[in-house]
Description:
The protein is mainly α. Among the domains are: 36 residues, no CATH class; 31 residues, no CATH class. Helix content is 35%, strand content 8%. It has 6 helices and 2 strands, in the order H-H-H-H-E-E-H-H.
Amino acid sequence: ETIGRPDLTAGGVAPLDLPRVKEEVRRILKAKTREEWMALFGKVDACVEPVLALGEALADLHVSARELVVEVELPGGGKVKQLGHPIRYSATPPEYRSAGCATGTHTREVLRELGYGDAEIDEFEKTGLFK
């Protein structure tokens, strides 16, 4: 109803009709900006949220308020931002002891599992494919 097409959901959507309905909704959504749609859907009881780019999601007020991005100490010094635990318990707050492995820690192992030999992997590293 909010998009002016109650016919798209009247009586439900048959599985065979789903591709047509998706395409029609896609066409309708392209007619307005994301901000226009959010203003429109903000006035009704509908579970609609925009798909955010990573930078937008990380800067979101809800993400900040829930502390969903945390800084964690790196094993060799320095800090890295990573996703925080989304569930909060009053008596046991989450602990972030480690940021995990440094980027590239398992590169050789993964390449071996993909079938590359040591000589090939050495050549990849020599040419700067990875560090």
